[in-house]
Amino acid sequence: MKSLKRRQIHDRFMVSLLVVSTIAVLLPLIIIISHVLIEGFSALNVEFFTEELGSPSRAIQGRPTGLVHTILGTIVVDFLALAIAVPIGIGAGMMLSEYPEHMLNPTLRIMNDTLNGMPAILKGLFAFVLIVKPMGTFSGLAGAVALSFVMLPIIARATESALLSIPWTIREAGLALGLPRWRVVLSTVMPAAKTGLVTGILLAFARAAGEAAPLLFTSFGNNYLPDRWYGFILNPVDTLPQRLYSLAISPYEQWHSMGWAAAIVLLLFVIITFVIARFLTRNKMQQA
Amino acid sequence: MKPEHQKDSKTSVNEVQKLPNIIYLWLGDKIFSVVVVLLGISIILLALGMAWVLLDEGGLALREFGFFSFVIGTTWDPAVQLAFGAWPFFFGTIATSTFALLIAFFPALAVAIFSAEYAPRWLAGMIDNLIQLIAAIPSVVIGIWGIFVLAPWLRDSIYMPVYVWAETNAAGLLPILGNPIGYGMATATIVLALMIVPYTTALAKDAIKSVPKEQREASWALGSTRWEVMRMAVLPYARGGIMAGAILSLGRAIGETMAVAMLIGNKNTLPFSIFGAGATMPSVIVNEFREAVESLHLSSLMAIGFVLFLIALVVNLTAAYINRKLSIGGGQIL
Description:
heterodimer; A: MetI-like fold; 14 helices; globular; B: mainly alpha; MetI-like fold; 2 domains; two-stranded antiparallel ribbon; 1% strand; flat
């Protein structure tokens, strides 16, 4: 046995090692955020939110360019994806929590985890085959479907755990009053689990909103605003993550700084969603 | 709920009153359960459909070259020979993600231990939030930072000095080091490590938190120092969860696409070198899919997607298996 003195020194040494590692891990985060903030804010201007991108020559000649079509496209595609993913995800989550004895549940759980563990790029390829190939054109709809594949497993899992956190006694109370099962689930369990559901949906949304890989082969990208409103759904559409990628790998200096501006808008969009989700869970925990 | 029993009642007054109830109770429940189960089944179908679609679309290439020859084939030439082998990308994926996990594992474990066991509550909360924030940063944002900040910095202050030193002192190392252009395997690995730290940390922390209090108290009672409690009582108990978390993080690294595609330099032929350009399976799909015109080329990219699907599946199942085998009760076996 080592002497107590040596053991204590060893103990101190390990603590300091832990502290140093923690700082070393958190430091890059602070560096990344600060770079994006500094570069992004200096590149932001009013035109960014009002003009469309156009051809590279527009930026090189110093004419006003922006990403208004990208921002609108992102909103359309993301919310369309949400509209597709929420009903299916909540339904699957309900199946896991409200019909725990269902014979398909173990399979569903494995498949849901498999889907969640799959790289997002494969979901893009899948949506390409499902939507783009039959339609014959890249489209916002295909992008939304690809993103909904990203959201689905997260929403299903979050729904399951949110609904399971509601005690069975509440369901029994409803059934004892003579309510049918579907009313019990929709009118007592769902409202009680509201916060958990919304948090899960927001986290899924934040995750999908940052994905670029599935969008490259589905919504493809577009330098201009569509002529008609449904152009956002049926034609190739620009989205922030995918545009950010194209700007960053482009050879034009002006587009690089616009890339930083896109980065800060995307980062704020994702982080605000994320923070709202966290804030909701925190309130819920305080109530409990 | 026995609607048949109610249907049988002969009095007409009862019949009229019970009818809406039958719809409300019996039919409502039926419809609800059918809808919910159909939605659940649609997720099962999606997962299966994904595998099937990738296999089907990659079928042309897999039939042309054969599955194993495709995986171990080293030539990827979409222009002249139209020969496709996935080995460079397979190798690039495994190499970058494995090294990324090796770099990320111990710092991530340290953060998990520190925030679970040492830090006061407010600090632990802050660290957790920051870690989750790293996980929330979109991959493309890390990519643009990597292109314009990290890669040039690494090139100027690390790769170049090492390369210049090797030129004069150890010329034999030069082919292994490769061109220090800044965009290559090493940069991609470093960024991957940064991106998987939050997952490894969060999962390791869950595992550490799930160790029962008695386990620690027993060790304290034997007169252990704090670190000894950690090392002898807590970490062995949490081993299964920590390992499973590490493997899940490896899965993340394997599938990570955008940041890697932006930083790895994109070179389709072996040999890859440490500083030099390389490619991974997701990065080659991103780079070539939109430009692929030959159906064999397109099919080969889909086949790479199928191989990637298989790898991700194996990694996820392994993590689940380790978690079950090594944790709590199973921990006594090893």
